[in-house]
Model the fold of this input.
Amino acid sequence: MYLSFLTISLFLVGIFIYNCLSIPSNSIWNDQILAINLAKDILEGNFPLVGYLHSNGMHSFPAFYYFITPLVYISENPKFLYWSVAIINAIGVILVSIYIQKKFGFKEHVIYLLFSGTHVLTMFYSSFFWNPNYTPFFMSLFLITFFKILEKRSVIYFHTAGILINIIIQMLPQSIVLIPSFIFILFIFRKLPNPFNQLVHLCIQLALVYPWIHYHLFIFDWNNLESGQKLYKGFSIAIEQYLNYLGGWVLNSEYTTYLNYGTNTYPYANIIDPLLKGTSIILLILITYSTYYSFKNIKIQNYINFCVIDNGEDQLTTKKYLIVLSIINLSCILFFLGGLYMEPHHYQFLSPVLALNMTLLVNVEKKNKKILLSALYIFIFIQGLFSYWRAFSEYNKPYVTDIGYSTKFLDYLNKNCVPGTSVYILDHRGLRFFRDASGGNVEKNCGDLILVLRDHYAQSQIIRWFLEKKYSKTDLEFKDYMIWTPVKHL
Done:
C-alpha cells in the first residue's frame, strides 16, 4: 500500500511539473471560446441541442458542453479549464493503475503509470481544453467497466459501458469504431445480455443522441450545407496519423494542422524527428506482437464458438484483457480501409488502451519478456525525455499569444510605452498586428514595435534581412522575444 501511494504521488508530481510548464504556454482558440460561451448559455437556462459547427458542415454533439458547464460555473478562466483536463485525465490513469495492481501486481501498476506519464501526445493533449481531450478519462472508466462485464455478466455494467461509449463518441466522433468492437467482444465472450436489455440499451443510446438527431432532422438547413473538408482522404492518411499518434512527431513542427503552435525545436529538429519516428516503429512492433499473441490464444469451434486457450498458468484473465485491447486497437483498421480523414488527436480514445496493452503484454509473455521490456523502456525513456524537454522549452520560449503570457506582456508594454503604441508579431507566416498599449503613467514614446522570437530570427534569413534593412533593435526585451522598431509607422 505504501509503495502504491508513493508511485502515484511521483506520477502526480511529474504531471504537476509538466503542466506547470506546458499549460501557460498553450493558446486559446476559437473552439475553446465557443465552448465556454455555450456552457455559459446553459448556465443562463438556454439548452442547446447541438454544439458549434465543425469544418465538415455538421454540428458537434452537445454532451461535452453540458459536461463542462459545472467547470465554467466555477471559473471560465482558461488556466483553470486547461488544468481541469490534466487533473481529470490523471484521475482516470490512477483509477486504472489501482485496478491493475489489484489484479496483476505492483510492477504492472508502475509500468502503466510510466507509460501514461511519458507518452508525448497523451501528455500534450491533456494540457489544454478541447472536446476530444477528456476522452482518455471516460475511456479509462469504460475499460474498467468492460473488464467487470468479463468477470461477471451484469446488465448494470453493460448499460454503463454503453453510456460511456456514447459520451466518448459525442466528444470524439471518430471513436465510433468502439461500437462494433464492443458488440464483437461481448459476442465472442458470450456476454451479450438478453434481447430485452439489448432493446432497452438501444433506446438509451437513441435518447442520449436524440437532441443532435432532432436538430439535424427538423432544424438544420441541409440546402446550405458547406463542408470545409473531404471525408475521404486516401488510404495512407489514417495510417500515417496513427503512427504519428504513437510517436508524437507532430509536435516536432511549429505550425501544424489543428494546433495553433506545435513546438519550435530549432536547432534540434533533425535529431528529434528520427527519435520520435523510431518510437512509433517500436510501439507499432509491440502492438503487432501483442495482437498476434492475443489471437493466437483464441480457439474457434464450429465457426461461431470462441474460447480462450487456458494453459493452466493462471493467465486466463490477462489473455482475455489483451484480446479486448487488441480488438479495440485493431478497430482502427476501419479508418485505414475507409481512407477516412484523420488527425493524431482523433486517436485519443486509444490512450489508456495502448498503455494497458503494453503493461499486460509484458505481464503475460514469459518467453520474450526481457526483449519486450527493453523495447518498452526505450520507448518510455525517449517519449518522456521529449515530453518534459518540450514542456520546459515552451516555458522558456513562450509566445506572447499564450494564455500565461499575453496579459504579462500587456503589463510589460503598459509599463514601458505610452498608450497607443502598436505591437506587431513577425514570424515565418509574415507580419501581423497583435495589440496596442492601453495605459500607464509612462511618457516614453516607443513608436510601433515588432516582436520576433530569437529562434525565428536565427532560423530565417528573410526575417533577418527584413528587420536589419529598415528597422532597429530596441533595448526592450520580453522572455525570448527581441523587440524592434521601424523607421516609419507600419
Notes: The mean pLDDT is 89. The CA atoms of residues 303 and 455 lie 61 Å apart. The first strand starts at residue 298 and ends at 301.
